[in-house]
Structures are given as structure tokens and as C-alpha cells.
Design goal:
Chain lengths: 218, 130, 189
């Protein structure tokens, strides 16, 4: 059974051109988010052009793919998304352990929606981190580390995060999308503005974090 | 496989006897302990004290002493002394063994005398285990 | 000279000495003795006082890395070393009998650092044997302190890159916690 993405999206699909949409991973991310939200036991098979099939076993929090995540194809085109109904006790979709699903969710989340908010997120909300992603196993940059640390210690919107880290809003949004897809972000429409003031660029340069990252050559 | 000397009854007995003899040799000995390099209490005098904490501390001291002499490139550490108003602790390795003898002398004893006694009994302990 | 002290804590055999060696720019000062209890933990040696390493950030600034001896009989060293620390890397090994209990034990022993968010937990040897998953560690952390979010990573302490990631995450967390006006570790970074 293939998912009709338009039917399952919580909001109506955006007008063409109203969002910059990355073809492929965006639709896949919406499908994955639906499955994770509904919690009905299904497996997911993604047919990715020029790559082997990507299989996801949600019950075992694992995926199987011949393409390594280090070579994640950000512009991949999906030729199909299939859900395969299963049951809680059914055998795994592929030979376990497979790879940890979090790694895939991270890459998918960062590389979908073209820098805009994921469809299931609203404007005017603030976010807070509930758990850190396992950063030693996800390709990441140090602005993301700062933003994750900010979210772990307060509530912030994507705009506010971008100001803290001194990055484009789209960078902050990509991170928020990924953390949300991974299920480690809580959302609040009513959390107040963060107490912290976005540090000036000069102040950031004076922080131990920046000095240390420079010293470590990152 | 190294089984701790603190767990060998024959060693513990020999150590206990040695410390009693040490006390007999000098009345200024207030406390003495034999401990493993990694901080386990083998025997102590007086026998009925809880020597666990001191054994850990003495092994840390021993290792730090070694680290200092290594850092300064002055060869191996031979003995440590901690001097205080009420007495001094003299500490050194039992030659050829992973054991340390650490002893507290009151200020009736000179440092030289304390050191000599401690060296003698460390040597005796080495002889017992050889 | 501006100094920052980072403590490496956790039980014996988790990889503290190794982690400091991966990060340190100087030869690490070690205080190892032969392990009398190989039947309990199969390691040839054990740290009996501390490990010491450094990262030199500039002419006037360094990060001092101190490793505690993991065994409880050396807990007087923990008291000495915790006084100076701004943050800590807590390493537990996945194939120990109860790594979560070990984590909670050390978080309690170093409560002041934990309460200020100055902790990153590193789970070592997670590839060697499937121990508790990271989610289980987070569940335990949430039960202990639901208002505090600290990172838990799987790490290989021999891997310099991974250990640098751990250190940067720790520093970022400490700074962000301070920026948000929450109780923070002593001193401004």
C-alpha cells in the first residue's frame, strides 16, 4: 500500500512555490512522521533511485540500507514509498540489528523541507529539547551543538535559535525539523521568550567554546 | 594472574607478625600498615583499627611520589615523609614486592631513626616473601 | 593563566585514563598500580590517585583534564578533585553488570556538577556488547531529575575525534546553561 501524502499531511499541501520543497526526502519525512505519530505497526520501504531499497523496521527502531549515511544522498529521488502492515510480535523486516533508526531520522530531518518548517510544526511556537541526539554518531557541525545546547536549557523558536548561534534561520529550522522527527523535541505555543540575550558576535568569539573549537581545528 | 597479597592468609599472618615486631623494636611507633600498591590493606598495627581508608591514601601518596620523581627525572622515589606537629609518617616500598610499608612515629623519634626502622622492616618483609 | 578544569569520572574500567590520553596534548601523568583484583575487573592496572592531562588553548589559557580513580576506596580523591572542577565527563561501560546504576551513583557523588548541568555521559564499549540502550539511560536520568537535560553519547575513548565532540558538547551545555540564567558551574567560562 502506498501512502497518499496529501491525504495524510496534517495541513493542506503548500502551494507550489510557497515553500521551497526538496523533492523526495520531504515526502519521506512526512510519511515517517505519520507512521511515528500513529504508532500502528508498519514497516516502510523506500525505493530510492540509483540506490538500493531503504527498509525501516520501526518496531526495532532500525533501518537497513546499502548506502552508508556518511554518503547520504541529499538530492535523492524516491520512486515509491510502501508501507507493509505488520504486528507487534512479527519477525523483523530484515536481519537485525540493522542500523539505528536515529541516524536516518537525523539525516532525513536535516535534509528535508528545504530550510522551511516541517509541515507538522507551527509558526510562533518555541521548542525545548527532551534528549540530546547521539552526536558522536551523527554528522554535525558546531553551530548545531550550540543550538542543541540552547534548546536543552530553555525554550526557543527557530528564529531565536538562529540568533544565538549566529546562523541563518534555515539552518536552525533544519535542526528543529530533525530533532522533531527524532521525537526529542517538545513544543510550546505559550513558553515565554528566552531570558538569555543573544550574544553578540564578539561575545561569542570570547566564549571558551569558540576558543576551544578553534584550537581543535574545527 | 595477580591475586592480591591481601587475600593470601599466609602473607597476612606474616605481615601482622612483622608489624608487632616493629612495634616491639621502637616504642615511638603509633601506627603502621602494609598495603598493596593498589591500595588494599594487608595488615596494620594496632590490628583492630579499620585500615581501609589509610591504605587507599597511602597508595595514592606512593603513586604521586613516583609521578613527581618521574616528572623531575630524578630516578625512583625512595621514601616519602609527611611531617606534622604530632608525628611523622614514613613510607617506602617493600623491595621486590607490590607492597608498601607506611608507619607513623611520634616526635620522640628522630626522622632518621624512623626511616632506619622502616627500612629495616621493609627489608625483613621482603625476606619473608622471597 | 586562565584555567578550566574538567573531571573524568566513572567506575573502574570505563575508559577514563584512555579518554584523557586521547585528548591530552602533554604526556598524561598517570598513577597506575597493578590490579590486585583481576578476578573482579579484568584489567592489568588501575589508577590509584589521578590522571592528569592538558589542552593548551592559547598562551594564557588551558584546559586541565583530571581523571579520578574509579574505585570507591579512593573516594577521598574524588572530594579533593571535585572542588576545582567546572564540568565532568562521566564514562560508564556498556558491558558492566549495571551501567545505569553506576551512572546514577556517580551523578550523586558529583551532585553539584550534575545540578548545574555540567555533565556529559559517555557510554563506552557499546559496540562490544549490547547493554542498555541510550534510551534506558535517558529514562533513568528523567526519573532522577526531570528538569535537567544532559547529553548521553556512545563513545570510544580511544577516538580523539569523538572525545573532542564530547568535550565541546560539555562546554556548550555549560555556557548555554549560564546564558539562560540557570544555576551554572562556578566561574564564568
Amino acid at each position: 500500500m502506498t501512502i497518499d501524502v496529501d491525504q495524510d499531511a496534517r495541513k493542506p499541501a503548500p502551494e507550489p512555490g510557497a515553500y521551497p520543497v526538496t523533492v523526495g526526502w520531504t515526502e519521506a519525512a512526512v510519511a515517517v512522521k505519520s507512521i511515528l505519530s500513529l504508532k500502528t505497526p508498519v514497516h516502510l520501504k523506500m525505493n530510492v533511485e540509483m540506490h538500493g531499497p531503504l527498509l525501516v523496521d520501526f518496531g526495532h527502531h532500525a533501518f537497513s540500507w546499502s548506502t552508508p549515511l556518511e554518503l547520504f544522498p541529499v538530492d535523492a529521488v524516491h520512486t515509491g514509498l510502501e508501507t507493509i502492515p505488520t504486528t507487534v510480535d512479527a519477525p523483523p523486516y530484515f536481519e537485525l540489528p540493522g542500523q539505528n533508526l536515529d541516524g536516518l531520522l537525523w539525516e532525513m530531518g536535516v535534509n528535508s523541507f528545504g530550510g522551511a518548517a516541517a509541515f507538522w510544526l507551527s509558526a510562533d511556537e518555541r521548542y525545548h529539547l527532551t534528549r540530546w541526539p547521539n552526536l558522536t554518531h551523527h554528522k554535525h557541525n558546531l553551530s548545531q551543538v550550540r543550538m542543541i545546547a540552547a534548546l536543552g536549557n530553555g525554550y526557543a523558536s527557530a528564529t531565536e535559535l538562529a540568533a544565538f548561534a549566529g546562523v541563518d534561520i534555515s539552518e536552525a529550522q533544519r535542526l528543529v525539523n530533525a530533532l522533531s522527527l527524532m521525537g526529542i523535541l517538545s513544543r510550546s505555543a505559550s513558553a515565554p521568550a528566552p531570558v538569555a540575550v543573544a550574544p553578540t558576535v564578539a561575545a561569542q568569539r570570547r566564549s571558551l567554546f569558540s576558543r576551544l573549537r578553534k584550537r581543535l581545528g574545527r | 594472574m595477580t591475586t592480591g597479597l591481601h587475600m593470601k592468609p599466609a602473607v597476612v599472618k606474616a605481615a601482622e607478625t612483622l608489624l608487632v615486631d616493629m612495634r616491639a623494636a621502637t616504642s615511638s611507633l603509633s601506627y603502621a600498615a602494609l598495603l598493596t600498591d593498589d591500595g588494599f590493606d594487608v595488615a596494620r598495627f594496632p590490628a583492630k583499627t579499620d585500615g581501609a581508608r589509610f591504605a587507599g591514601m597511602a597508595s595514592s601518596m606512593q603513586a604521586l611520589g613516583d609521578a613527581v620523581t618521574h616528572e623531575l627525572s630524578i630516578g625512583a622515589s625512595e621514601y616519602l615523609i609527611i611531617a606534622s606537629g604530632k608525628g611523622h609518617v614514613v613510607q617506602l616500598r617493600v623491595p621486590g614486592q607490590e607492597l608498601v610499608l607506611s608507619a607513623l612515629f611520634d616526635n620522640d623519634a628522630t626522622v632518621g631513626h624512623a626511616l632506619a626502622i622502616t627500612r629495616t622492616f621493609a627489608q625483613k618483609m621482603a625476606g619473608l616473601l622471597a | 593563566m586562565a584555567e578550566h578544569v574538567i573531571l573524568f569520572t566513572g567506575p573502574m574500567g570505563a575508559g577514563k585514563t584512555t579518554a584523557i590520553q586521547s585528548l591530552s596534548e602533554i604526556e598524561v601523568v598517570r598513577t597506575e598500580a597493578n590490579n590486585s583484583e583481576r578476578h573482579i575487573v579484568d584489567k592489568a592496572t588501575t589508577t590509584v590517585a589521578l590522571d592528569y592531562g592538558e589542552i593548551l588553548i592559547g598562551a594564557d589559557e588551558k584546559v586541565r583534564l583530571y581523571g579520578i580513580p574509579g574505585q570507591q576506596r579512593f573516594n577521598f580523591m574524588w572530594a579533593i578533585l571535585k572542588k576545582r572542577a567546572e564540568g565532568m565527563v562521566l564514562l560508564v561501560n556498556s558491558d558492566a553488570p549495571d551501567p545505569i546504576a553506576e551512572m546514577l551513583f556517580f551523578l550523586d557523588e558529583f551532585r553539584e556538577l550534575y545540578d548545574r548541568g555540567g555533565v556529559v555521559v559517555g557510554v563506552t564499549r557499546a559496540d562490544v556488547k549490547a547493554g542498555p540502550g541510550i534510551a534506558d539511560f535517558y529514562d533513568a536520568l528523567e526519573r532522577t531529575n526531570p528538569d535537567l537535560v544532559i547529553p548521553v553519547f556512545t563513545v570510544d575513548p580511544r577516538d580523539r575525534d569523538q572525545m573532542e565532540n564530547v568535550l565541546l558538547a560539555l562546554v556548550a551545555n555549560i555556557e548555554m546553561r549560564a546564558a539562560f540564567g540557570m544555576a551554572s558551574v562556578a566561574g564564568a567560562l
